[in-house]
Fold:
Amino acid sequence: MKKRTLALMLSAALCVGMLAGCGGGNTGTATTPSGNTPSTTESETPSTTELSGTVVTNGSTSMESVMGSLIEAFKEIQPSVQVQYTGSGSGAGITSAQDGTADIGLASRDLKDTETGVKQITVAKDGIAIIVNPENPVADLTVEQIAQLATGEITNWSEVGGNDAEVVFIGREAGSGTRDGFESITGTEDACKYQNELTSTGEVIANVASNPNAIGYASLSAVDDTVKAITVGGVAPTEETVLDGTYAIQRNFNFIVSDSTELSDAAQAFIEWATSADAADLIAGAGAVPVAE
Structure:
C-alpha cells in the first residue's frame, strides 16, 4: 500500500513539472487576437506609396531655366512622375490651365481681372533686365529714359550718353509675360515701337548680342555674357535687389492652376515641393529669386 501511494505521488509531481515547463516556453511572446504573432519590422516601418503619372506644364519661356532645374530635381524624388515643359508664352500658359490642356500653366506675370477660372501660385520673383550690346557705352538709364527709348521719343543713343547711332528697340510678341511686365512697369502699354517682336527670351538676347545699337528686355534668369544688363536708376538687377524691391523692373513667376478642377496627386506634389524651402537653392541657381524661406 505504501509503495502504491508513493508511486502515485511521484507521478503527480512529474505531471506538474511537465505542465510548468510547457507554460514557461511561451513567456514574453505576444499574440494577436487571432493567435498570430505580428511582424515587428512591418509595424515599425510603414510602407510609402510612390507617385506616378505625367504632369503637363506649359507657358512662359522666361521660366525655362527654373523649370528645367525643378523638373530634374523632382525626378530624383519621384522617379515615376514625368513632368513635361513646353515654352509657349505666358498667355498660352494661362489659356492651357483654363481649358485643361495643361495641369499647370506658367506665367511670368500676374493674372488679369479678365482671366477667370484659374488662380496663381507664385513660385519665384524675377528681374526684367534691360539689355544692350556689350559695345554700347551706356551703362545706366532711368525708368523714364527706358520708356522714351521704347516708345521712340528718344531715337538716338547720343541723347542718353551713347554713340551717335539710331536706337533699335527689340522685344517680345504680344501675349508674352515679359513684354506685359516691361510695358506695365514702364507705362508703355500699346505705345512701344518695336523693330523686332520675337517669340522667345533667347531670340531677344541673340538679336541684341548681334546689333551694337540694339536695346531690349529679358528675364534676368536668362541673361548671359553675350549682352550687357544695365543698371536702372543706379541699381543693378540681382537676386538681392529684386527681393528687397530696390530694382524697379521686376515681376512674379507664377504657376497657374484651375480653381475648380482638382489637381492630380503628382501635380499637387510637384507644386508643393517647388514652392517649398527645399527648392529655394535650385530656383536661385537658375537665376530667379525664391519666395520660400
